[in-house]
Design a protein that fits this description.
Length: 249
Amino acid sequence: MPLIALVRKEVIPVPRKISMRIDGEMISATDDQSILQAARANGKYMPALCYMEGLSPVGACRLCTVEVSGVNRLLPACTTPAADRMSVTTNSPKLQQYRKIALELLFVERNHICAVCVSNGHCELQNLAIEHGVTSVRYPYSYPKLPVDVSHPRFVLDHNRCVLCTRCVRVCAEVEGAHVWDVASRGTNSLIVCELDRPWGESTGCTNCGKCVQVCPTGALAEKGRAVEEMVKREEPILQLVSRRGAMS
């Protein structure tokens, strides 16, 4: 008797439509979306620093925290799935207070000096601070002694301005497929590192594409030769690549 090969077909679940409330307004979403995706798909603004459309969410910055009815703690909107009949509050005095604290802690953890930064005026962290009224910081600055990697012929990595959003890690691994970047150590000692902590200029896997530089929300990753206020990031080409990849999959 001839052998019959049994091929298991992968069943791709079809997203189910759901209804939920955001700030009292009923919206339509799908059960494969996060709260943040559902909100933005319906034209509702929600602050976020580590999130980028098309990259896997990590909930690192905690700026998109929301209140969910029936849950006694704040939840990150980027990693919390949307659910049918869920009621979400995205803006309240409590959330504004927690977001200001999160922003202040980001500023004190590293050495963010906007006046001499290449991304001054084009920085997402700076814009969020202005938006939330963070004009001063209530906590003592850490002033860590952090290095600046200028070994790459085109780009520079300044750990003093890094917020550990890991956008560079994810875009390099998930879009470019090189996985040059990762996070080393833990807590306040965490640093973005290149290939097991070797100088960026000595990387064997870096393709010099610059995607990590363009998705960096601050001046931590920048092009060489840029002076103060000259580093403008261009995320649109990367978002186009991500959308094409999603359409092909």
